[in-house]
């Protein structure tokens, strides 16, 4: 049963690792602005999307003629 | 579709000015240009996140020339090295996800920018750029050209590294870590089963719990020890004394229990308590990071101004470097930073930041102009009379009120209760100890500690933070932003209300124009409107907007070509005259139309003369805020109301009619006199709430018990105060006052409840039966009931008190 020493020590160690991760996150300022990242994560590839759309609109007529 | 909205900014489009570009409608050229910039750079999905998110770019010609000055720029930067620089810019227009997107993609619009990051709650963008590739001026001009004009003021001049206090977050994190782990490890003890292996590892578990409780006890709770120590030194018994006492006794007793192998101790309750109390503290701090409650004139004043050197060259100089005798150049929409004498022929100065007055004042060459006004119209020149710190307005800030510590010694309701609570608690503890000592010394020690542990006013300490935190959020949703939770208590205590007149109970958005004199025919009105259109004078603009549109629309279509304005002449300080449709129209001051003004009261008015016949005058009255009469009627039954005004007595009669009887009206008050007036009221034992708006109220706002500033645009302008109220919610003021009173009574009810818990707990303690399990149940239970009770009650009051129709 002495394995319980090991198990509990491991569980505490894991908890401490997460705790340190938390402290580092706070220190880096991740908790200072809790709104913007929630919006930011929703856009990243919009720019590419619009790039594809744009030429389509303008050059679709030409493409049609060619094909 | 009759009404169309601009694709870029969402404003209604005036048909005549509509611009169609790329199959989309725009209200003006500015909006179209922004769209063009975005579409050229494949960034049109700016318009996908939010409908019409933009703002019309303002003309910024020459406005940012000061950014060429190296020494000024270096003061604004957060970080500077040869190839990297970081600047944080405040952009009031940030309001939606489109804004975030476009501002974070700035590097696509401008080379040299590497990263731009938006902080939405603070309405700031942090730009990292290469100063060798792009200058800060280019960046600022780019931002202005896409409708995101940064707000740079004198306040930015001393940007040190702003230190963010995150200690509460750390403490809360530590407390939660300890609390969670201890709870898990305590489970075997809760079900005290006499099992072999539980007994075997009991010591290990207990010492582990002890070790885990140390960070919580030593670090997380440290704020309570400091506060308790301070309050003992200043001989004011606050709530932190019994809390600190409870925590320490709990820790000592639990350690003792473990060492002597009496039991598992109360470490679970101890860490839980610390965690919940810190949580309450965190909840109470609701900050509105985009608002500032500590503003002084610095946030209004420009950082630099154009100086004209003796050799007529122009140069941007920091405002602090302006000296007496300097010649300054003030452009359209620029703020005059110092007192001086006008050199240019004429100036239209808008003092709405200072007095709240909507109508600009005309100054002529040789007139004194005071700091704080905004030039409207043409570029003017002026000579400096005083430096910034010695100007009429800024001198107000040298008053003692502004030197005082913000943290005024205010007894909170919790502190008031604890004044009685602490002695009674100690009395019970000692009498319990005294009783048991004759029976059993061991039990006596247990009882003594148990009383202090169980009576630790955790629930009591939680009541106020959770109630105020909740009310703070409710008020914030209604656009009434409080500086901190203390303001609610002070609001509840107020008995005298002092209002500023101009800009506070009147609105500076629109003027109420009335006409007096001979009736003007529709044709005449049309002619007047036509003439006014040519003029740029602010009064002409207002009158133009006021005159009914219908008369113009009916005829203008057909007759417009005929109605050409001829011989238009604008005579400075007098008025305008023009020849139109063979009629001579004169619009202007009384002297201009050769009318002897019999009106002894000063009024802003515009007189009309057509073909040498005097018709009458348009009078510009202050427009009182909607619902003012009803609000004052409701308030007058409970509060003393006074109205302070910097203006002359011209409005006395109107005000007396409008406001309930007994309202004291005081006119001709200078900023310092307003401050003194409040001080006098306070010396008579009144709790004064000041409601004001402009910089001239800043002294009175600081002196009063609660200073509320009314703001048409919460994001930009408001002097230092305790609370900021959105001008549109003005009529809800009595609701806010009522709610603050109700929140105090909620707290009182909850105090009774938590005292009941204490009585139950104490009866366990005093009889010597406080088991760790009982403590572990009672404490969280009381915490949870108290927290939910106050939240439900304050939300209930917020809903039932809300004025009807809203």
TrEMBL record, chain A:
- What InterPro entries does the annotation carry? Cyt_oxidase_maturation_cbb3
Instruction: Write the record's keywords in alphabetical order, separated by commas.
Output: Membrane, Transmembrane, Transmembrane helix
Q: Does the keyword Ribonucleoprotein apply?
A: no
Q: Where are the transmembrane segments?
A: 6-26
| Keyword set includes GTP-binding | no
The protein's name is: Cbb3-type cytochrome oxidase assembly protein CcoS
Q: Which organism is it from?
A: Flavobacterium ranwuense
Automatic annotation (TrEMBL), chain B:
Q: Which CDD domains match?
A: HMA
Example GO molecular function: hydrolase activity
Mostly located where?
membrane
Keywords for the protein's UniProt record, in alphabetical order: Cell membrane, Hydrolase, Ion transport, Magnesium, Membrane, Metal-binding, Phosphoprotein, Translocase, Transmembrane, Transmembrane helix, Transport
Q: Which Gene3D superfamilies match?
A: 3.30.70.100, Calcium-transporting ATPase, cytoplasmic domain N (3.40.1110.10), Calcium-transporting ATPase, cytoplasmic transduction domain A (2.70.150.10), HAD superfamily/HAD-like (3.40.50.1000)
**Domain of life per record:** Bacteria
Keyword match Ligase:
no
Where can this protein be found?
A: Cell membrane
Q: Name one Pfam family in it.
A: E1-E2_ATPase
Q: Tell me where the transmembrane regions lie.
A: 168-187, 207-227, 239-256, 262-280, 420-439, 445-472, 747-767, 773-798
Which membrane topology term applies here?
Answer: Multi-pass membrane protein
In what residue span(s) does the HMA domain sit? 85-151
Presence of the UniProt keyword ATP-binding in the record: no
Q: Which PANTHER family match?
A: ATP7, ISOFORM B, CATION-TRANSPORTING P-TYPE ATPASE-RELATED
Please report which protein family the annotation says this sequence is part of.
Belongs to the cation transport ATPase (P-type) (TC 3.A.3) family. Type IB subfamily.
Protein name (database record): HAD family hydrolase
């Amino acid at each position: 049963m002495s394995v319980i020493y090991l198990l509990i020590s491991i569980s505490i160690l894991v908890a401490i690792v997460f705790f340190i991760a938390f402290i580092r996150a706070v220190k880096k300022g991740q908790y200072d602005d809790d709104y913007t990242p929630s919006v930011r994560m929703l856009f990243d590839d919009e720019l590419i999307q619009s790039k594809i759309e744009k030429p389509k609109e303008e050059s679709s007529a030409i493409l049609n003629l060619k094909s | 579709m009759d009404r169309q909205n601009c694709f870029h900014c969402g404003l209604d489009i005036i048909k005549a000015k509509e611009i169609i570009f790329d199959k989309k409608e725009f209200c003006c050229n500015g909006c179209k240009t922004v769209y063009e910039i975005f579409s050229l750079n494949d960034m049109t999905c700016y318009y996908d996140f939010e409908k019409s998110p933009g703002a019309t770019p303002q003309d910024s010609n020459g406005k940012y020339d000061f950014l060429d000055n190296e020494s000024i720029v270096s003061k604004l930067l957060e970080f500077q090295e040869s190839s990297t620089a970081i600047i944080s810019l405040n952009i009031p227009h940030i309001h939606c996800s489109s804004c975030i997107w476009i501002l974070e993609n700035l590097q696509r619009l401008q080379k040299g920018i590497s990263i731009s990051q938006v902080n939405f709650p603070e309405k700031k963008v942090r730009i990292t750029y290469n100063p060798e590739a792009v200058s800060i001026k280019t960046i600022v001009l780019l931002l202005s050209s896409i409708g995101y004009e940064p707000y740079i003021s004198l306040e930015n001049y001393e940007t040190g590294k702003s230190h963010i206090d995150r200690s509460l977050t750390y403490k809360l994190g530590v407390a939660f870590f300890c609390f969670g782990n201890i709870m898990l490890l305590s489970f075997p003890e809760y079900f005290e089963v006499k099992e072999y292996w539980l007994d075997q590892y009991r010591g290990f578990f207990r010492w582990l719990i002890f070790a885990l409780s140390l960070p919580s006890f030593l670090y997380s709770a440290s704020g309570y020890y400091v506060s308790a120590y301070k309050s003992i030194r200043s001989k004011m018994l606050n709530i932190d004394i019994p809390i600190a006492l409870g925590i320490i006794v709990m820790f000592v007793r639990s350690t003792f229990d473990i060492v002597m192998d009496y039991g598992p101790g109360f470490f679970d309750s101890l860490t839980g308590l610390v965690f919940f109390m810190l949580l309450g503290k965190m909840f109470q701090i609701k900050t509105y990071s985009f608002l500032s409650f500590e503003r002084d004139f610095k946030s209004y004043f420009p950082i630099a101004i154009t100086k004209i050197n003796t050799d007529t060259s122009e140069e941007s100089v920091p405002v602090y470097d302006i000296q007496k005798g300097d010649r300054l150049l003030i452009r359209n929409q620029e703020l005059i930073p110092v007192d001086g004498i006008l050199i240019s022929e004429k100036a239209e100065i808008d003092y709405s930041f200072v007095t709240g007055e909507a109508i600009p004042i005309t100054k002529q060459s040789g007139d004194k102009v005071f700091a704080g006004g905004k030039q409207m119209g043409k570029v003017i020149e002026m000579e400096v009379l005083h430096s910034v710190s010695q100007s009429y307005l800024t001198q107000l800030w040298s008053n003692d009120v502004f030197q005082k510590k913000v943290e005024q010694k205010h007894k909170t309701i919790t502190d008031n209760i604890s004044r009685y609570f602490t002695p009674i608690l100690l009395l019970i503890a000692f009498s319990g100890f005294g009783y048991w000592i004759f029976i059993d010394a061991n039990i006596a020690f247990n009882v003594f500690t148990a009383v202090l542990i169980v009576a630790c006013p955790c629930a009591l300490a939680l009541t106020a933070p959770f109630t105020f935190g909740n009310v703070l959020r409710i008020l914030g949703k209604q656009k009434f932003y409080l500086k901190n939770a203390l303001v609610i208590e002070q609001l509840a205590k107020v008995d005298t209300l002092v209002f500023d007149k101009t800009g506070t109970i009147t609105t500076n958005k629109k003027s109420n124009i009335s006409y007096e004199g001979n009736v003007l025919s529709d044709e005449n009105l049309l002619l007047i409107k036509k003439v006014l259109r040519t003029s740029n004078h602010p009064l002409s603009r207002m009158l133009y907007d006021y005159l009914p549109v219908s008369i113009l629309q009916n005829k203008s279509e057909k007759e417009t070509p005929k109605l050409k304005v001829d011989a238009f002449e604008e005579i400075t300080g007098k008025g305008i005259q023009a020849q139109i449709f063979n009629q001579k129209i004169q619009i202007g001051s009384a002297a201009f139309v050769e009318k002897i003004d019999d009106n002894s009261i000063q009024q802003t008015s515009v007189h009309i003369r057509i073909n040498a016949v005097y018709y009458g005058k348009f009078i510009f009255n202050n427009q009182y805020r909607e619902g003012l009469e009803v609000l004052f009627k409701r308030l007058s039954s409970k509060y003393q109301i006074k109205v302070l005004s910097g203006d002359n007595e011209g409005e006395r009669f109107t005000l007396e009619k409008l406001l309930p009887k007994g309202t004291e009206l005081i006119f001709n008050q200078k900023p310092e006199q307003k401050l003194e007036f409040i001080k006098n009221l306070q010396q008579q034992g009144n709790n004064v709430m000041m409601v004001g708006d402009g910089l001239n109220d800043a002294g009175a706002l600081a002196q009063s018990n609660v200073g509320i500033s009314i703001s048409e645009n919460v994001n930009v302008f408001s002097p230092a105060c305790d609370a900021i109220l959105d001008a549109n919610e003005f009529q809800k003021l009595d609701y806010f006052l009522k709610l603050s009173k109700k929140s105090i009574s909620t707290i009182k009810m909850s105090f009774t409840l938590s005292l009941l818990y204490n009585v139950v707990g104490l009866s366990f303690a005093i009889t010597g039966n406080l088991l760790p399990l009982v403590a572990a149940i009672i404490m969280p239970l009381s915490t949870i009931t108290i927290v939910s009770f106050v939240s439900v009650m304050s939300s209930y009051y917020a809903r039932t008190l809300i004025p009807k129709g809203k």
